[in-house]
Structures are given as structure tokens and as C-alpha cells.
Amino acid sequence: MAAPPKITRVRNIGIVAHIDAGKTTVSERFLFQSGRIHKIGEVHDGEAQMDWMPQERERGITITAAATSFAWQGHEIHLIDTPGHVDFTIEVERSLRVLDGAVVVFDGVSGVEPQSETVWRQADKFHVPRIAFINKMDRAGADFPGAVEEIRTRLGARPIPIQLPIGAEERFTGVVDLVRERALTFSGDESEPPQEGPIPAAMAAEAQAARDKLIEAAADFDDAVANAFLEGQPIDPLALVAALRRGTIACSIVPVLAGAALRNKGVQPLLDAVCAYLPSPLDVPPIKGTNPVNGETVSCPPEDTAPLAALAFKVAMDEGRKAVYLRVYSGVLKAGDEVQNARTRRNEKVARLFSVHANRRERIERSGAGNIVVAMGLRDAGTGDTICSPRAPVLLERIDIYEPVIARAIEPKTQAEKEKLDFGLGKLADEDPTFRFGEDAETGQMIIRGMGELHLDIIVDRLRREYGVEANVGRPQVVHRETLARPADGEARFERTVDDETLFGHARVHVAPRPRRAGNQLRLAIVKPPVAPNAPKIPETPQAILDAAVEGAREAMRSGPQGFPIEDIEVVITGIEYRPDASNIAGEKAAVGEALRQAVREAGTRLLEPIMRVEVTCPETNVGDVLGDLNARRAQIEDVGFRGQQRVIVAKIPLRRMFGYSTDLRSATQGRATYSMQFETFDAWE
């Protein structure tokens, strides 16, 4: 019997969670247990392998998604450790886009936190199978059943514990393996494997009830397991694992494990679960793309013999040279290959290929389907680009990009550094699609835009360290949007002679506001005027003129009268005058753009500002102070509840009211309260 192909033992996984849940600590233990590193680096000591940037080590947080590879029990695991802070959510988004599975880490004390919900929704969006790890079970207030219930209620998932913790808080010593019906105890020594033994007698009834629920879940995916359960027959653990694996890969269930990664408890069983329950590239449906030449749908099977198809999901600068992180979906990529960027339709040569471990790279000559690698030499590649074979072009779905919500003015401390500033900003924008920069048309100032104060602080710090630019930075400013106040119509005629060529266009446009978060809508609904019975027939408007009209409207929608992007409007092009002797693309484009601008000015616009969802956790004694401060900031309080012994306040509040909140909250609560904030929507706020 032939051995299964190597790709069946490949796992492309991510570690995702809310900030401070223990993602990087879990990643470090994975690397140590697999033998990839020989000394565990702790986040709180600034020595974690996966937090390699100076800014990460100083702050004790993950800023950029770090990739690594290691082996475990005959499996090849490609792992990405992602940030938990909302300012760097694009790192999670683009990582989940190319991963086959994820380990979601939850704080055993805090349960499901705001960024936990965000990353869960991102995983739902890409149909990524997950296993959950309830971490910090050794901490005071750890509550395994409570965390599992929150996964069920707040995330709408179906969590199935495959382990139960033995003890909690300082008495947490191990877990009950419900699949094999054994107890695993941990000494806390990172080099010692768990000790197996019988289930403690005091937990026998609880473990049996939990195992029955596990078998019920597995029975939904395996008839043999269902029949054995109904007939009271013993169930083979391998059959149970296979059934749970099918349910996990279908995103129908979420196996739940417990541990305390910092104390080296529960890490090896979690690694075993990654191999047992998360999919290989063969277990997920082949990714589909579009042929950019004829628009046909193309399937990209995970086979080395198929044409090359890879997605560039991250760009990093390596001493001024662009390093492109690729997920190879189909085919083989070799150093020296000529490949095509499906977005630009230009060919480039792969200079070198690397496997990656955080910021250290190991040179390789080829990479097969299912792998994550770094390529050098792709000068034009950006986040979301498809790298494919020139003989079989394919365009994969791009990665969604989040729009910035905060802006700051920046200028070099000396004019001599202006060129270095522009160069550095350009390189950082290449790396980070949520970072934008440009000159303000009215003031001439250079404006940088990002996802939050921390995001822009990191950008300025990197400019100083990596590009030697000392810069002065202004106060944070909120980025706004515009929307229409009422419906309106506009009409414009454009006629001009340039170099003996007449440019002509004439268009009518109708605009109207749409509901909040409905997005923009642009369509053609040209009303032809009535024609007398004996009048000459009006010629049909060519498709090129109609396309130019749509493009002219799309360009004009990018900025409203107050200089901000326009949101939630409907634009209908109701009339185009076509004259065969004079109408042309440039003239029609200009006419539609001017008609749209007239209609928007006539309708008037309202400013929309970023509204944030804020969650404050504080002791009971501080609830009044926190609520009073939030009300003073014009917050809309949505909920005041409990999480363990702490009170949790959920509110919506304009971003402009949140500047300096961290300092004010610490002052009002003597440092006993914490908060998290994430972008909710753009809206008008009184």
C-alpha cells in the first residue's frame, strides 16, 4: 500500500486571540517542544523569538504577524503568530486568508474578549476550521465552563470540550483526555512530557457526562460512531478522532482544550490536537480564481503537478529590499523561475526563496503546493497580488483592506531629511496596506493615516530606528467620511477643443442617500427621450462611452465637497447625449464627473465620524466613576454586566472623544480598570 503524500502531513495554522491572552507564549512553547528552539523566550522579558521587532519587545505585544515552520510527530507545521491589538487587525486578516486552520487562544479568566470576537468573525469569513485553547487555567478566577459557555453564546459556535481541567487556579495540575479516557498531569518542567494515569475518582461522573456529549457531537459526522453509541458498545478512540476531525474541518464544531502555557501545562496535547483535528491543504476545498484573459473560473488544486498559483499575503522590507510572503496553493515555485503578477500582467523573476523563522530565513531552492515561503526579487508585488505561471494566468480573490480612521501631520526636524522621510513612508506603506500618507492639498503638510494612535506611534518609531528620520508629529486628528443629506439631480455639458480635437460629453445624474452601512451603489438607467414617428433614428451609445461614464462617476465619488470620501450613496446616470461626430471617452468622463459633483453640491453632505465600540473592565467600586466619565464623553452605554468578579461596561463612543482615555481611566480607578476599543462604523454623532 502506497504511503500517503507528504502534503497530508502539512498544517498551515495561525495563533489568534485578544491581546494578552497568551498567543506568543503558546507559539514559543510550540517551538521549544518541537526542538525548533532550545531556550524559551518569555514575552514579559522581551526575549520571545516570535516578537522580534524592537517595538514588540519593549511593549510586550505582537505588532506584525510572524511566521515559522517546525516538525511535530511527523507533521510539518507552518505557524503564524498574529497580533491581538485592534490597530493591527489587518495582520490577522491577511494571515487567516492563507491559513487552513487556527488555534484560538482564550484567557481562562476573561473568557471571550472584544478582539476575540473580531478574529472569530474574520475566521468565519474565510471558513477557517478552529480549535480553542482555554489558557491561564492557573490564574485566580479561571473558569473553564464559563469560557466554553461564552464561546457558545457570544460567538455562536458549537464548542466541544475534548479535555477537562483537573483543578483550577493554583490547584491546576493537568487535564482529563476525554477521547482516550486518561488523565494527563504536568510537572511544569518544559522538557518533561505529561504523565498518564487513570481519571481521578472525584471527576469520574463529570468526565463521563462530558464524554457522552463529545460522542453525541462526533455521531453527527460518523454513522458507525452513532450506532455504537446507541447500542452501548465501546467506541474506538481513532474513530472518535476521525469523526471530530470531519466536524472541525466542516467548521461545525470547535474542539476545546485547557492549559497554562506559561507554566508549560497542556502544550504537547495542544500540538497533538493541531495534527489530529486541523486540516491539511488536501482537506479544504481547492481555492478558486479567475482567468484574467477570459473571465472563466479556475480551480487551483493543491498539487505540485498543477500550474503555479500563489497569493502574496504580506510584504516586508529586508534592508531596503522587498520580501514577499507567499502561500503556494498550486504547483511548484523555484528560485530563478519567471512568474507573472496577475494584477499587473507583468512577468518577474524570483531571485531567491526562503523558509522563514520570525526574522531569520533559511534559503531553499523550491517550494511545493501547500507551503508558506518568502520570495525575493518580486519588486512590483503587493499585499493581495496573485503570483502565477505566465502560461496559465489566474487571479485569486484579493485581501480586504481596512480604511484608516486617524490622521496626524508629520514633518522632518530638518529640511535635509525630507527626502529620507518620503522614502521611509513609501517603504512602510508598501508593507502595511492600512497605512496611508500624502500631502494635504490646502496646507501642504504631510499627513499620515492609520488604524489608531498606537499604529501611528509605531510608524513614527520605525521611521526613526529603521530609516534614521527624526520627525515632529502633530496631534491626532480623526478621519471623516461624507454622506448625502437629501436626493438631488445634476447635469453637465463638456465641450472643449484641444490640439484641434473636440472633446464632447453631456450627462445627467441623480444622487440619493442610502441607509447607513449600505455602501455605495452606481448604475446606468438612461432614459431615452421620446422620438417623433418620422424623426431620424437616434444612434445607439457605444459601450466604450458608457464605460467612460461609469468610470467618470466612480472617480468623482472618491471625494465630496468637504474633501472626504463619500459613503452610502446611490448614483444613477440617467442621461447621456451621444453625438457620433463629437462624443468621445475623455469628454463623457469629464461631463459625468462634473454632473455628479453638481448633484452632490446641490444635495449637501453630512460629516460622518468613526464610532468605536469600547469595553471597560473594572471592579464594582469603580463602576460609577467609569460610567460618569463615559457619559461626559457623550458615550452610548449598551450594557453593564459581570465577568467573574469584575464589572464589564460596553459602550459606543466617537473616536475623537477617546484621545487620552487610557490616562484618565487609570487615574479614575487607581489603575484597576482596563479597556479595549475597536472600530464599529462611520456615523453622525450628536
Fold and architecture overview:
This protein has 686 residues and is α+β, with helices and mostly antiparallel strands. The protein is built from 15 helices and 38 strands. An eight-stranded antiparallel β-sheet has the order 18-17-23-14-15-22-19-20. The model is unreliable at 43-52 (pLDDT under 50).
In short:
With 686 residues, the protein is α+β, with helices and mostly antiparallel strands. Helices cover 26% and strands 32% of the residues. The model is unreliable at 43-52 (pLDDT under 50).
Helix content: 25-40%
Largest sheet: 8 strands, antiparallel
Q: Determine the mean pLDDT.
A: 85
Poorly predicted parts? 43-52
Count of alpha/pi helices? 15
Give the percentage of residues in beta strands.
25-35%
Q: How is the largest sheet built, in terms of strand order? A: 18-17-23-14-15-22-19-20
Radius of gyration over all CA atoms, rounded? 29 Å
Give me the count of strands.
Answer: 38
The geometry reads as: globular
Give descriptors for this structure.
single chain; alpha+beta; 15 helices; globular
Secondary structure layout plus pairing:
Blueprint: E1 10-17, H1 23-33, H2 54-59, E2 66-72, E3 75-81, H3 89-98, E4 101-107, H4 114-125, E5 130-135, H5 144-155, E6 159-161, E7 163-166, E8 174-177, E9 182-185, E10 195-197, H6 204-219, H7 223-230, H8 237-249, E11 254-258, H9 267-277, E12 287-290, E13 297-300, E14 309-318, E15 321-330, E16 333-334, E17 338-341, E18 346-349, E19 352-357, E20 360-364, E21 366-367, E22 372-376, E23 386-388, E24 395-396, E25 406-412, H10 418-431, E26 436-439, E27 446-450, H11 453-467, E28 471-473, E29 477-478, E30 481-484, E31 488-498, E32 501-513, E33 521-524, H12 543-556, E34 569-576, H13 585-603, E35 605-618, H14 623-632, E36 636-643, E37 646-654, H15 661-669, E38 674-683
Parallel strand pairs: 1-3, 1-4, 4-5, 5-11, 6-11, 33-34
Antiparallel strand pairs: 2-3, 7-8, 8-9, 9-10, 12-13, 12-24, 14-15, 14-23, 15-22, 16-21, 17-18, 17-23, 19-20, 19-22, 25-27, 25-28, 25-29, 26-27, 30-35, 31-32, 32-34, 35-37, 35-38, 36-37
